[in-house]
């Protein structure tokens, strides 16, 4: 999950290309409309001249610009009327942006725009093994083929719960702990949630517990001048949704320190009301044994607990192959 300066520069170059593309589209629209409504070119020139005069007067003479602003409003209303009469929406000649919030710069008031954060997340996904899985494991490919009886009823409820989580993501704050049998669908469900939220523009970080603890170890134990990816670490606190898969499979070297680091992240995300989803093949009793009582209590106290009881789907598929 390393994000390099080269990759960041490539993203910023893509913003420059987007601005160039949208300027060309705006110019093309302007030529089109001017060709059909020649009077608009003169009106736009008058608006520009009036605005420039008002700015100069305000700066050099401190004079009121109310007359100029009124004139601009009149010209703008005339322009809108002519465009509507010709079948155009007045916004057709407004500047074109892929992201109106940052105007395709990647920054809003000096801070990274949500679109830039998502581009960084997407790069991190593409260089990990999770990205292709999201194309294969999502709500559209979800199947009940390998479920029956009580397990089928349970999985239908879990799918509904997952879809409700996505649909109400912007309004409701919910953390979830998926636990239970190996291969029973926990990772598939988390991938469904991740894919849908990423498509909706949210920043989602997905990490296996192994990779997460490698990152936390790098933060805690910086030895021999080793470099550390602060952006990757900070994203654990800042992303819209953090998904930790297979908690309990991590190597437990220096576990006390790194586990404390993990639950600091969970605590701060909880305080900031930023959702987290954790999946584990361990039972609640095993999780309690692996982690401190205080840490375990935090999971139980602020997470919705969803137990998966089905058989190992991967083994079932192999039997049928």
Give a structural overview.
There is one protein chain. The protein has two domains: 5-109; 128-320, Rossmann fold, CATH 3.40.50.300. The chain has 321 residues and is an alpha/beta fold. The chain has helices at 5-36, 39-60, 66-85, 114-126, 131-136, 149-167, 186-199, 209-220, 230-238, 255-271, 284-290, 293-302, 313-320; strands at 107-108, 111-112, 176-180, 204-208, 241-245, 276-280, 304-308. Strand 5 (241-245), helix 10 (255-271) and strand 6 form a beta-alpha-beta unit. The protein has a five-stranded parallel β-sheet with strand order 4-5-6-3-7, with helices on both faces. It has a two-stranded antiparallel ribbon with strand order 1-2. The protein is elongated, with a radius of gyration of 27 Å. The mean pLDDT is 83.
């Amino acid at each position: 999950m390393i994000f390099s300066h080269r990759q960041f520069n490539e993203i910023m170059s893509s913003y420059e290309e987007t601005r160039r593309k949208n300027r060309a589209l705006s110019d093309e629209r302007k030529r089109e409309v001017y060709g059909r409504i020649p009077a608009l070119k003169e009106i736009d020139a008058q608006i520009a001249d009036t605005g420039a005069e008002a700015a100069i007067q305000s700066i050099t003479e401190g004079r009121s610009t109310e007359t100029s602003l009124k004139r601009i409003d009149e010209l703008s209303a005339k322009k809108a009327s002519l465009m509507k009469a010709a079948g155009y929406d007045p916004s057709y000649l407004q500047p074109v942006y892929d992201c109106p919030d940052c105007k395709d710069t990647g920054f809003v008031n000096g801070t990274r725009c949500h679109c830039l954060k998502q581009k960084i997340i997407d790069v991190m996904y593409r260089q990990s093994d999770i990205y292709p899985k999201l194309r294969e494991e999502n709500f559209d490919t979800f199947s009940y083929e390998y479920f029956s009886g009580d397990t089928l009823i349970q999985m239908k409820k879990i799918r509904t719960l997952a879809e409700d989580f996505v649909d109400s993501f912007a309004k409701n704050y919910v953390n979830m702990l998926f636990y239970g049998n190996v291969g029973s669908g926990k990772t598939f469900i988390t991938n469904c949630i991740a894919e849908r939220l990423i498509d909706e523009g949210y920043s989602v970080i997905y990490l296996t517990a192994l990779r997460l603890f490698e990152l936390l170890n790098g933060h805690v134990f910086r030895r021999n001048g080793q470099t550390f990816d602060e952006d990757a670490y900070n994203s654990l606190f800042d992303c819209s949704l953090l998904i930790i898969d297979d908690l309990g499979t991590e190597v437990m070297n220096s576990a006390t320190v790194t586990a404390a680091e993990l639950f600091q992240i969970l605590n701060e995300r909880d305080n900031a009301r930023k959702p987290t989803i954790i999946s584990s093949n361990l039972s609640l009793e095993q999780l309690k044994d692996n982690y401190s009582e205080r840490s375990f209590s935090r999971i139980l106290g602020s997470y919705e607990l969803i137990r998966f009881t089905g058989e190992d789907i991967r083994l079932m598929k192999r039997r049928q192959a």
